[in-house]
Design brief:
single chain; Jelly Rolls; mainly beta; 2 domains; nine-stranded antiparallel sheet
């Protein structure tokens, strides 16, 4: 056992580590330990995933940038929560800008996906499963104001709620009803991917859509977190979500990736890491 922890940097981590190897990263000021598959970050309060600051976000070009897991996060959940920070440029106008989605890339129709989006200045949640299409829309407009906003959608199993900057939106069902159905209710197909910044379809269907603007601090739960929205929003400053036990938490540059590379690490304890596609860009632009 060494009497001092060896040092490294986020760009010079050992290429062939052994399980249990520990280092202090001089550039990120984090302790890291290799768990046999991934580097895990540890900080002075004993909680992995939180460095005490939010320095980076990811910018999406609206053309082909997105993140994907290739797996399904919380696949059996029939209630849940999605939380994110978004910054939509004024130029987005009436664009369709996906924030978070579960999708079936093998679908033969475009009707298998739950998806949380910005659309025409508002927030929407889509639930599409075969012939069932339920869509709810919030009442706030003009979210393409080039300012940071906290957005969240929750399901208690029987209805959805959408929150903007800590406050509940008044919802209108623009298709179907406010059914509250969630990823675990899908029966018309087999979901294949969890993605940030994309509403994709398989190549033969076409019509995929991609996020425009910045996305930061995306978290997912398999439970209704409505009672904790004020804590998650944290008066407009992203904070440590680990005490609320998210099933996934992607910090968009402030995780183990430390503003480098093409993997966005899940900073919960569940290792749902995302891979960048078409180079969304790290930016020092945060809430």
């Amino acid at each position: 056992m060494p009497t001092t922890i060896p040092t490294t940097t986020s760009s010079t981590r050992p290429g062939s580590p052994s399980t249990g190897d520990a280092y202090f990263e001089t550039d990120t000021k984090n302790y890291i330990i290799y768990d046999g598959a991934n580097w895990r970050g540890y900080v002075s309060d004993g909680a992995s995933g939180w460095s005490g600051s939010n320095t980076y976000s990811l910018n999406f070009d609206g053309t082909d940038d997105y993140l994907t897991t290739g797996t399904i996060v919380t696949p059996t959940a029939t209630s849940g929560t999605i939380s994110a920070w978004i910054k939509i440029p004024t130029s987005a106008g009436s664009a369709f800008s996906p924030i978070f989605s579960w999708i079936d890339m093998n679908a033969t129709s475009a009707t298998v996906k739950p998806m949380f989006v910005y659309r025409q200045g508002k927030l929407r949640f889509y639930y599409q499963d075969g012939s069932t299409t339920d869509i709810v829309e919030g009442d706030s407009t003009g979210l393409n104001d080039n300012a940071w906003h906290h957005v969240a959608v929750t399901s208690n199993g029987s209805s959805w709620s959408i929150y903007l900057d800590g406050s509940a939106e008044t919802l209108t069902a623009t298709s179907g009803s406010n059914s509250g159905k969630w990823v675990g209710n899908i029966s018309g197909g087999t979901l294949t991917n969890t993605e940030i910044g994309a509403g994709r379809r398989n190549a033969t269907l076409g019509g995929s859509t991609f996020a425009v603007g910045n996305i930061d601090e995306v978290a997912v739960w398999d439970s209704d977190q409505s009672s904790n929205i004020s804590t998650i929003y944290n008066s407009g400053t992203p904070g440590n979500l680990l005490s609320l036990n998210p099933k996934a938490w992607w910090r968009m540059g402030d995780g183990i990736e430390a503003n480098s590379g093409t993997t966005i690490y899940d900073m919960s304890t569940f290792s749902n890491n995302m891979t960048m596609v078409s180079s969304p860009a790290y930016q020092s632009d945060t809430p």
